[in-house]
Design goal:
By secondary structure, the chain is an alpha/beta fold. The chain starts with 7 loop residues before the first strand and ends in a 10-residue tail after the last helix. It binds hexanoyl-coenzyme A. The site of hexanoyl-coenzyme A has 21 residues, from α2, β6 and α5.
């Protein structure tokens, strides 16, 4: 069913690809609760939609997202933050979405905006993207996983320096440090690149794609030995899928695989 949203735009610009554009231009896509709820709903709707194989989240050329909404947060008390588990609802993207999500980051991606980009499975950036964890300047710390995900991605010393100083970094730097998988010259190329990759992923067996995401993410939580064993069990499990038979027999027949996603 078509849903109508106020702070995001949702479309399917390529075969199998769900696109979510953050759209709160007056506040540079500052991430307040109603926007996060819409984002979660849109992600879950695409995740359940059998015609969708991968998703892209982007913002505008000016801002991916300029952070959590500072005006919404400024008067919050400890009891409200703790009592309502403030920011916990942001965890739906990394914890419950099974299909791959690519972030196409242009413009500002600061604080919660940088964290949202890091929650995605792949980050693409353009040269002039402006990323950072400036929370220290507001008297707080990253609250949506920034201290954990940035540190895992780029190492402790660099992450510590960035988080302690609040210094911003460019899309080019994010790419050079391995936080972003690709860096494009322009915002248009960045979004096109993300949609192209999402389309490629959406062209594969949904079963295999889901398993790839699951095992790569496990590497972030398990030691190498358990991780390799986990991967092998999931690999074994795929011999129970139709698509394993389809993919391997298509190779032998020099044909293109016609996936059933079963
Ligand atoms: C609320 C914001 C906002 C934010 C921008 N706006 N960022 N509102 N929360 N995070 C609003 C501005 O108040 C302004 O509204 C409008 O968007 C346009 O912003 P300007 O500042 O006029 O634009 P510009 O001069 O181009 O500067 C862009 C900017 C700056 C450098 C990105 O807006 C900025 O520094 N924003 C805050 C970045 C930040 O500190 N983010 C981290 C937030 S803390 P009006 O009404 O005046 O036009 C955080 C904590 C995460 O994210 C922890 C858990 C998630």
């Amino acid at each position: 069913a078509e849903k109508s949203y106020e702070y995001i735009k949702v479309s399917t610009p390529r075969a199998g690809v769900g696109l979510i554009e953050l759209h709160r231009p007056k506040a540079l896509n500052a991430l307040f609760t109603p926007l996060i709820h819409e984002l979660n709903t849109a992600l879950k709707t695409f995740d359940r939609d059998a015609s969708i194989g991968a998703m892209v989240i982007t913002g505008s050329h000016k801002a991916f997202a300029a952070g959590a909404d500072i005006k919404e947060m400024s008067t919050k008390t400890f009891a409200e933050a703790y009592g309502d588990d403030f920011i916990e609802s942001w965890s739906e993207l990394p914890n419950t979405i099974k299909k791959p999500v690519i972030a196409a980051v242009n413009g500002h991606a600061l604080g919660g905006g940088c964290e949202l980009a890091m929650m995605c499975d792949i980050m693409y950036v353009s040269e002039k993207a402006n990323l950072g964890q400036p929370e220290i300047k507001l008297g707080v710390i990253p609250g949506a996983g920034g201290s954990q995900r940035l540190t895992r991605a780029i190492g402790k010393s660099k992450a510590m320096e960035l988080i302690l100083t609040g210094r911003n970094f460019s899309g080019r730097e994010a790419y050079e440090w391995g936080l972003a998988a690709k860096c494009f010259e322009t915002a248009e190329e960045c979004l096109e690149g993300a949609l192209g990759t999402a389309e490629t992923v959406a062209g594969f067996s949904r079963i295999a794609v889901k398993a790839c995401k699951e095992v790569v993410n496990k590497s972030q939580e398990l030691g190498i030995r358990e991780g390799v064993e986990y991967e092998r069990r999931v690999f074994h499990g795929l011999f129970g899928s139709e698509d394993q038979k389809i993919g391997m027999s298509a190779f032998a027949k020099k044909e293109k695989a016609q996936w059933t996603h079963r």
